């Protein structure tokens, strides 16, 4: 039930045009929590040049914006699958 509630809240907020937020439950109410407020006082940090962040970028096929202004060449993005379906069973050819 809890995951369904969070998922529905995230979809509704995204379709309403909100970005930069996370969904949470506060006093039994679904609320939008701004991501900068969530991470501002977090005891956990991530090295933006470390292995974990590199893996996140590789798995999600995102460009590395931190190397854009440096002398180190940016990694070439891998192309998305040619399939028209998220699950890889694309349309018949």
Strand count, sense and barrel status of the largest sheet are: 2 strands, antiparallel
User: Unreliable segments (pLDDT under 50, ≥5 consecutive)?
Assistant: 77-93
* Radius of gyration, taken over Cα atoms and rounded to an integer in Å: 18 Å
Classify the secondary structure makeup into a structural class: alpha+beta
Shape: extended
Q: Report the total helices.
A: 3
- Mean pLDDT equals 77
How big a fraction of the residues is strand? 5-15%
In total, the number of strands is: 2
Percentage of residues assigned to helices: 25-40%
How far apart are the termini?
40 Å
Give the strand line-up of the largest sheet. 1-2
**SSE string, helices as H and strands as E:** HEEHH
Notes on the structure:
- It is a single chain.
- This protein is α+β, with helices and mostly antiparallel strands.
- 32% of the residues lie in helices and 13% in strands.
- The protein contains three helices and two strands; from the N terminus they run αββαα.
- Strands 1-2 form a two-stranded antiparallel sheet.
